[in-house]
Design goal:
The protein has helices spanning 3-11, 18-28, 37-49, 90-101, 113-123, 129-152, 159-201, and strands spanning 16-17, 53-58, 76-77, 80-81, 83-88. It is mainly α. The chain starts with a helix and ends in an 8-residue tail after the last helix.
């Protein structure tokens, strides 16, 4: 997930405070990817450094900056108390346009823990691989049911959250199909080994020597 581009996209709607960016990102993505506020401010600092956004300082009534808990440590720039917000620069707008216009590379699959775990279980001939696959199938089915109920509670205007939930459900559907395919492959391999053993046992001279 690109936190950098997510923050830039939100800033395309207008200046935002750091904690405001965190909250909006989480709300728009259905709280699927909660952000650590320290990571948000670290990312914003890098974006300022790279010239993609600029800081803006505006007067506040209490002399505090907004932060993780909604209030940051007291700060001042020069002799003025201020609240720090961020806005896109022209370079930042170009970055956002390029990000939205560029398809995500589909030739390099993301490293997935489940795929690696199943592949290693198969490669090492673990006797519990079938149970492991069934357990994952049950987990995915329960998750789909929960996400479907959650999607049914959305308001018609919650389009971004609906998109995120649709994607999550589609990925779980694909995971279930892959698990079914893996089970079929394992069953086919087992039948093939059994047939090969039966053929070998029926050959002359294949008995005990």
């Amino acid at each position: 997930m690109s936190i950098k581009h997510g923050l830039l996209a939100l800033l395309g709607e207008g200046p935002r405070y750091g904690f405001q960016l965190k909250k909006e990102f989480e709300e728009l993505t259905g709280l699927f990817w909660p952000l650590n506020v320290g990571q948000v401010y670290t990312t914003l600092g890098r974006l300022v450094r790279d010239g993609l956004i600029a800081e803006e300082l505006s007067p506040t009534t209490d002399g505090l900056e907004v932060t993780a808990a909604g209030k940051d440590s007291q700060s001042s720039v020069g002799s003025d108390d201020s609240q720090r917000s961020y806005r896109l620069t022209e370079r930042g707008r170009d970055e956002v346009r390029a990000w939205f216009a560029t398809p995500r590379p589909a030739t390099t699959p993301e490293r997935d823990e489940l795929t690696i775990k199943v592949a290693l279980a198969v490669a090492t001939n673990r006797p519990d691989v079938t149970d492991m696959i069934q357990g994952q199938r049950n987990e995915a089915t329960s998750a789909i049911q929960a996400l479907t109920r959650r999607k049914a509670r959305l308001e018609p205007t919650d389009l971004s959250q609906a998109v995120v939930l649709d994607a999550a459900i589609a990925r779980l559907d694909a995971e279930l199909r892959w698990l079914d395919l893996t089970s079929a492959r394992l069953a086919g391999a087992s039948r093939g080994r059994a047939a090969l053993n039966a053929r070998d046992s029926g050959r002359p001279g294949s008995g005990n020597r």
